[in-house]
Design a protein that fits this description.
This protein is of the alpha+beta class. Helix content is 28%, strand content 32%. It is built from four helices and five strands; from the N terminus they run H-E-E-H-H-H-E-E-E. It has a five-stranded antiparallel sheet with strand order 2-1-5-4-3. The termini are far apart.
Length: 120
């Protein structure tokens, strides 16, 4: 079993939510990359970082998982937008999973920025 400190001690952006979808913590690379402070996120719903156009889909999927315990998007790289603390939206690759940390269920996501490719 990993601890929250171990999960946060990686060099790529990571955010952690509790079993109810409330943000527990994010690491320094997450804060630097997406311009959110810990104070802005702690205790808020994970939907705070989801662009408004994607929130209904997130709530539906999260509710489905809570009822069925059958993951549909976990452990699969997903290219999705993320709402940044400065109000901008960025494309990023999300990799989401759940596991026990410090004896409690958590949802963990690494969210790696995607570089914008120029049209050729």
């Amino acid at each position: 079993m990993k601890t929250l400190a171990e999960v946060l001690n990686i060099d790529i952006p990571v955010i952690v939510a509790d079993a109810d979808g409330f943000i527990v913590a994010a690491n320094a690379p997450f804060h630097q990359t997406y311009r959110w402070s810990q104070e802005d996120l702690a205790g808020k719903s994970i939907s705070a970082i989801i662009p408004p156009a994607l929130r209904d889909a997130h709530h539906l999927g999260f509710s489905r998982f809570k009822l069925t315990r059958a993951p549909k998007i976990q452990d699969t790289p997903l290219d999705l937008e993320i709402w940044c603390g400065d109000g901008s939206v960025r494309l990023a690759q999300h990799f989401i999973w759940h596991q026990d940390l410090d004896g409690a269920e958590h949802f963990i996501a690494t969210i790696t920025p995607k570089t914008q490719q120029a049209d050729v």
